[in-house]
Design a protein that fits this description.
Blueprint lengths: L2 E2 L3 E7 L4 H4 L4 E10 L4 E5 L4 E8 L1 E6 L2 E6 L3 E4 L5 E5 L7 E8 L3 H7 L8 E2 L5 H15 L5 H21 L14 H12 L6 H8 L3 H12 L3 H19 L4 H7 L5 H12 L3 H9 L2
Antiparallel strand pairs: 1-2, 2-3, 3-10, 4-9, 5-8, 5-10, 6-7, 6-9, 8-11
């Protein structure tokens, strides 16, 4: 329920983060929504966390870092810690409605960057829509609930907030992926391969993970890593095979199946092609040294 304040009618909803919240990359602190009164103006002010403000109706002027931006219904701005902001109604003729979510945590700046925000460019156009409104109303309802177990509330909010950020990030401007690859995409793909190589992943699956066409992905992966993705997957599996042969008592058959090979023969053939030795011979030769 909204209450009347000096400059607005608003509902403020507060959350006290649990230890489980603070162990994560971000956590909610406060949320709310309001209707501005004539003469509505906030700031200059600084906050010690991150605050995402949605313009639901009307127009809002935001001043920060020497820049003045006029936002319209559907636009969003984000306040970053320890930066000065002023925001106010552009005029008193039109109704101004805002909603906001306030967060903190070490992962917040990265999440906002994925959504297209930067400290020096905190405003974005056209982020608010009906689906986002439903998500935020759900968060409000969870904060309004009384008598809930704190851990249950924490987990429910985490679920809602991860869905919110997943969708919010998708609303950002997609990079021209057919022309350029985000810095770190190949490194992330290599990490993905290391994590899942023993599960029988294919180059197509890795390309899908990177969000790229298979042919283009193979080309830029080979150029960046100096090895094709097919060979890199094989390298990861062979290195794991060597590790298991030398540091465990697992049988060769067990190792073959653990690494995702369909048969012992397929593993033995791949290993011999790679090392010019059978797995058993490799183990015997290196354990005798």
């Amino acid at each position: 329920m909204m209450l009347e304040y000096d400059i607005e009618f608003a509902e403020f909803l507060y959350y006290s983060p649990t230890e489980m919240d603070i162990e994560g990359p971000f956590w909610l602190l406060r949320a709310g929504h309001g209707i501005a009164k004539p003469g509505y103006r906030v700031g200059p002010r600084r906050i010690e966390c991150y605050s995402i403000h949605f313009v639901r109706e009307g127009s809002l002027v935001v001043e920060s870092g020497g820049k003045r931006t006029v936002l319209q219904a559907g636009d969003v701005f984000c306040m970053y810690p320890n930066r000065t902001y002023v925001y106010y109604r552009e005029n008193d003729r039109d109704t101004l409605q805002l909603a906001w979510l306030r967060f903190d945590g070490p992962g917040m700046e990265g999440l906002l960057a994925y959504a297209g925000f930067k400290p020096e460019a905190p405003c974005r156009r056209g982020k608010w829509n009906a689906q986002l409104q439903v998500m935020i109303e759900g968060i409000f309802e969870e904060l309004r609930a009384e008598g809930r177990d704190p851990i249950a509330t924490c987990l429910e909010l985490k679920s809602m907030l991860y869905r919110f950020f997943s969708y919010f990030i998708q609303l950002g401007e997609a990079p021209e992926r057919d022309q350029t690859v985000k810095k770190g995409s190949i490194a992330h793909s290599m990490d993905y391969i290391k994590l899942h190589a023993t599960e029988g992943i294919t180059v197509q699956q890795v390309a899908n993970f990177a969000g790229l066409n298979r042919t283009y992905f193979s080309t830029i992966f080979t150029k960046s890593a100096g090895i094709s993705p097919t060979d890199y997957i094989a390298n990861v599996k062979m290195n794991k095979a060597k590790e298991m042969l030398l540091t465990t008592s697992a049988s060769v058959t067990e190792i073959a199946y653990s690494l995702g090979y369909p048969t012992l023969f397929a593993f033995t053939r791949a290993f011999k092609n790679y090392h010019s030795l059978s797995p058993s011979s490799y183990r015997k030769q290196n354990n005798s040294q």
